[in-house]
Amino acid sequence: MSAMLKPLVAWSLAEAVVSDFIRKGAHLFEAPLDPAACAALLAEIRKTRRFDGSLFLSEAELDAHPQDGAPNLLDSLQHRLDFVERAPQIVEALWTLLGPDYGVLDRRVVCSLPSEALPGWLKRRVYGEATGDLGAYVRPAFRDVTYSCGVDFHQDLSGYPERPADFVTLDVHLHAVAETDAPLHLMEGSHRLGGQLFPHDLKRTGPDSWRYRGGDHSEMYVTERALTGEAGFCALWHPCTLHGTPPSPAGEARISLRYLFARGSAQTCGLDTVNATLAGPLSLAHARRDQSVEGVARRGTWTRDT
Fold first, then answer.
1. φ and ψ at residue 60, rounded to 5 degrees
2. Which of 28, 32, 50, 134 has its Cβ near the most Cβ atoms within 10 Å?
3. 6 found inside a domain
């Protein structure tokens, strides 16, 4: 992908993106990407596997299949990605936030599975875990997609210890996503506390509101927003913005695209303006405080009594 495409949409979009990042830590695009292109890409993805229990190893097979470096399904689908990577509104937003020579840090097909798709032994094993990455339990042939069944609230910054907050995340729906499809949830405004250790100190205060407390005892109240929408809906967020997915007992697998875009050599960019407004750190030396001395993860936000 060439990031050096001249922006083709009004400067007002650039202003809206920076303003939304300062206030909410995210920007939700008003116009969806090409739904026909979404459908074509989704059809090719679905040809490669069934998104059900056949994805998983048996419990007996698990130890014989250690998790190696995972391939990436999108490497074979580059010809289908221009509708995202060259979309004028996406290019404009990224150009504004990251500078003209931004690049792709990562891109993946991500799949949120309903719990009914998991074998019984796996449900028992992962119940109560704070994170939902199921890659270690997936058959090697299918590890080119990222799978979860509920993901606790987290920051993308935590995946890159020592890296500064110099990147953003883009999520693209490949099909319509309703409340019943385990949509991703954003905590609007949570980025303002900067980088914080996982799991995050959250307490529900209302149907869509939470108290969020930082490690330095800073505190704020944030609004939870479900990312529902039609095929082509896309959202962009800051690496310190909390987001996660509640587990769903039944329904269809939610399949989307997840990109991380990083700034290039630009001396200044819109993300600098956003980061200057944050009250907390812009990088993390380490990301987690959720494991006991035995290495057992604590129960997460979605599974504990809040």
1. -65, -30
2. 134
3. no
Looking up residue 219, the CATH number of its domain turns out to be 2.60.120.620
Bridge partners of 259, per DSSP, are 107, 170
Instruction: Provide the domain limits for residue 165.
Output: 11-275
* Contact in structure between 105 and 23 (CB atoms under 8 Å): no
pLDDT tens digits, residue range 160-189? 999 999 999 999 999 999 998 989 999 999
What mean pLDDT do residues 84-109 have?
Answer: 97
Does a structural domain hold residue 170?
A: yes
Report the interhelical angle of 88-98 vs 11-24 (nearest 10°). Answer: 60
**Burial (0-12, 13-18, 19+ Cβ within 10 Å), 35:** middle
> 291 in a domain, yes or no?
no
Do residues 297 and 45 lie in contact, with contact meaning Cβ atoms separated by under 8 Å?
no
Judge whether 4 lies within some domain. Answer: no
